[in-house]
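In this notebook, the sequence line spells out the residues, with the fold written below as integer tokens. This is how one looks.
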Amino acid sequence: MIEGLIGGFGDVIQPWNLLLLFLGTGLGLMIGALPGLSSPMAIVILLPLTYTMQPLPALLTMIGVYVGTKLGGSFSAILLRTPGTPAGACTALDGHPMAERGEAGLALGYATLASTFGGVFGWVIAITFIPLLATIALQSGNADIALVGILGLLMVSSFVRGSMLKGLIGVLLGLLISTVGLDPVDATSRYTFDIVDLMSGIPFAAALTGFFGIAVVFSDLKLVGQRSEKIVAKVNLALPSMMDMVRRWRPAVIGSLFGTGIGAVPGVGAEGATWIAYATVKRQSKNPEAFGKGEPDGIIAPESTNNATTGGTMVPMLTLGIPGDGSTAIMLGALVLHGIEPGVMLFQSNSDLVYGILAGLLIATIFMFLIAWRAIRMFIFVLQQDRSWLFPFVLLLATVGAFATVNSVYAVYIAIFFGVVGYFLEARGFPVVTVVLGIILGPIIEANLRLALVISHNDWTTFIDTWPRQLIVALIVLVLSWEIYSGTKDARKGRRSKIGISD
């Protein structure tokens, strides 16, 4: 592992790769600071720029954006009480009161140091567990890969927004989209409706662009004309003393543990982890009444959690091919677009790429700290501008990116169609990330499922003939059973509340 990491750092510090990582991190900080914009949207509009790149430079650019947005969301949360990212909402509880009493710079300092600590902590966890899990995954057969993919779909469906039914509908829609085109085994036409362009399937990048780019613009049109005013005339980043941070080690460690642990669970992401960490730190505090009134621990806990998830989400992504959130789902899509199949064989077939990604994750965290420290005034200036001026550029890049996938206007129509579909799905509470995950994992699950059956001469017991497969099947049944039980229980409570019966 040490040799692999050394090689990964050697690849990342090449001037071109290092520049892309630096620019991606700076862009991520800016995107994260702007309410209405998001990490998945920023990454997806970068896809067309990465088509001609090698896989590592392309992934490093996306990793920079991913890491930068985590801290960027705290800027607007502290200064405007308008979080740039959903996970930043927790930071606003104590960050904004600090800014109101004239300590905005110090609040930003706590957020920056806590985010850096969490990012490094998550990286240590990632480099510890990814090689270990990858070694285990190398023993997997086609049946194991198919079962892991199904488990990943169910877990994401279960945890995203707490509604498994909506999550499953999203996954099934994604699986349906992934089957459009010619059957990979017998070349039978599926769901093409005699449209020649559909014979090759739905252009993956066009679908991603629609769901994460165009749909976001549609949903944020309400922001047109809005400008934000920061609450103080002048803000400088004021880093707290090292002794102060050492005294506050508990919220940083608790947040980092929750971030890496929960971040490794597909579908949960940073949003849920930050609130759990905040509640835990508040409950253990000697002065819980200070939280919500400008308590530094209330900034450190969610911010360390927020950035620690970057390492946590990399664990299932790089070992099992299961993304932890929307951003890592797009990164998996980028691997597919560059001809690399994500999943359990990724470490064996492209170990250099994996170690390069891990090295880039740490360097991006360092860049995040340095850029935030020296360029905070620029980000504050951007916060005051009308965000809607970015929308035409997003639409332009999304259109160009969709066209470039197959050099046809047909892909642009596909992107616009899925942009409209994504907008209505999000408006009704259906998580788009589940649809994208179904599109990504659908072909992998189908290919391995059918290969496993061919090898076993259509014997379905091949999926339970080893103890790891039995364990995965048991987990699938457990997840389904728990969600059915929880859904039934909630429905029963709802009926009782309507007729005025208490438990």
